[in-house]
Structures are given as structure tokens and as C-alpha cells.
Design brief:
Structural class: alpha/beta
Helix content: 25-40%
Number of helices: 8
CATH architecture of the largest domain: 3-Layer(aba) Sandwich
Number of strands: 8
Strand content: 25-35%
CATH class of the largest domain: Alpha Beta
Number of domains: 2
Distance between the termini: 64 Å
Shape: globular
Amino acid sequence: MPRTFDELVAEAAAAPVDGWDFSWLDGRATEQRPSWGYQRLMSRRLADVSAALDLQTGGGEVLSGADKFPPTMAATESWPPNRARAAKLLHPRGVVVVATSDEPVLPFADEAFDLVTSRHPITLWWSEIHRVLRPGGTYFAQHVGPATMVELIEFFLGPKPAVGAERDPAVERAQASAAGLDVLEMRMERLRAEFFDVGAVIYFLRKVIWTVPDFSVDRYRDRLRELHDRIEVQGPFVAHSTRTLVEARKPT
């Protein structure tokens, strides 16, 4: 028997949302993955350097998938619950997890790393990336692109024609270049996502808090009920994300 709106809401509102493990959504939502396989490509690069830094590592879930770490491996994270998860996951493998604020500067010496990586960084500090890279060093990352989840955002907030415009690849290319980096690759793909029940939407919005910044179940309960009724009649709620693969090098 299908669960009621109230049951789905209560379950999703009580689910823990620390870390970047989205397995709670298994069977309840899907998101297409980029064709390039970021974690695999990151792992290859980590195996070939002597010192690397992973920025905004979250709970360390993506970084921990690397087969081999260089002799010096550090990761940063600002949110304490995620930092605790990352430390538990990465410390046994010799990775130092460093607490940072949400503002620059990075707590590392100039030219400390051969490689800087990041998957879905919230903020981009191009000048700091340039500073901590050694000459010839590389920044390799997967960014969240423009208009990600715009359908979901607009369902709750109304029309938002310029969502994520600052993450347009052309804008990021210009910013990286202005910081002194040579952009080797900047490739974007648009990907389909489906939410099969309102609980999946609630969980996603509680976890990815910048999607609808003022989201709470109480504040948006009427819209959530409308969304529940829509899914019941029309099927999954469809949205789209964009992802950008970025590779840039500090000149020698």
C-alpha cells in the first residue's frame, strides 16, 4: 500500500543528512552520471604525484575511492559533522583532514602540492589554488554547473532565469585564467534526475541546502503536498543537473 504524504514527510524529515553518501535515496531517486568518471580519473592522477590536496572533501566518500594516495595527502572540510566522517574514513589511510573556514586563505604553504582536486566545491578560490600548486602542478575537479536542479528550485521559489550563472564554464575559465592558471579542459554535460516520491525531494533539499536556501518542511508544507499529489498522478518529478570537468595547470 502506498505511503501517505504525512508518512513520507516524517521519514524524510528524520533521516540524517551529514556526509555526502546519498544511498538513502536508492530506489527513491536517480541521477544520471557524467560520462567521464571523475573518481576513476582522480584516482589515476593521485597515483602519479608526491603531494596532493582535496578541497571541500565532504565526508571523504569520493576521495576514499582512490586506489592509492601520494606520500603527502591532505583534505579540507569546514562543516564539523562532515569533517568527523572524513577523518574516520581517511585517517586510517594516512590522509590528514584539515579544518578550514568558508573563506580563504588555505592553511598551506605556497607551492605545497603537485595536485589539487575537488568534487562539487561550493566555493572556488582560484587564487588560492594557484598559490598552493607547485609550478607545473594541476587542478583537477568536477564542478556543479549552471542551472543545476533549476526545475526543483523554480517549483519552490518561482522563476529563476539565471540560476548558477556564475558556474558557467566560460565564466570559470576566465576566472581560472585571471588567477594565472592555464585551462586545459572545461567540459560540461547536462544530466537527468528523477524523484519518485516527495520524501526523496525533502531529503535532497535538507542535504543540498543551497538548492532552496530557506527550505524547511514547515515553511513549504503546502508546496510539498502539491508536489506529492503531482507525483502520484504524473509520475516522477524530473529535473536536470549540469556537471563540468575541469583541468587547469600552473605554468612552470
